[in-house]
User: What shape does this take?
Amino acid sequence: MQDIFEMKLLPLGDAVKGLVWQWINDRDVCKGILRNIPTSEDENNEWFRNCFKNNNQIHMVINVNETPIGIVALRHIDWVSRVGELMIFIGDETNRGNGLGTKALKMFIKYCFEQLNMHKIFLTMGEDNVIAGRLYAKLGFIEEGLFRDAFYQDGKYINVVKMGLKRE
Ligand SMILES: CC(C)(COP(=O)(O)OP(=O)(O)OC[C@H]1O[C@@H](n2cnc3c(N)ncnc32)[C@H](O)[C@@H]1OP(=O)(O)O)[C@@H](O)C(=O)NCCC(=O)NCCS
Assistant: This one.
């Protein structure tokens, strides 16, 4: 895709609290990040409060042309082993499938390795998440494990895949 937009990753702040609450209850986002329980506004507010206190997670807002469109994060960071778990979503369906996830993730991976000095990034995804699977494989993530029937979604069990990317 042509670079006809300007993308920035900005630190999470209260300004996007309402948007994040909306996104986190979006059906495709829930499905993608393996959540099956809706989030109340109070829980979302509590999550924001805790987010700023916790040193083991970094959430960035994906901004395109100054508009927030999603979240990319490294969570459960082990600062000794320098390993963390990746999470990404584009909140609104209309912004998906346009190369924005790819661009945001490339920027975030570079940040994790070159600024945070991470050694490895890992992630968990549903085996049926074709788009995420393509995205991660394209950026060099390797499948490291398959957990059979590890998540119940839409009336059936799905297999959960663990993937990892080591710093070169
Ligand atoms: C996963 C997600 C972040 C990807 O971001 P995106 O901007 O939609 O993806 P991109 O447009 O960058 O495309 C990534 C790859 O998927 C492919 N793809 C995109 N939309 C697709 C579709 N509808 N069907 C099949 N492939 C598709 C793209 O072609 C690209 O692969 P390619 O470069 O080999 O052609 C985004 O779709 C999303 O937020 N999904 C819901 C939450 C989620 O699943 N998060 C991941 C949790 S593990």
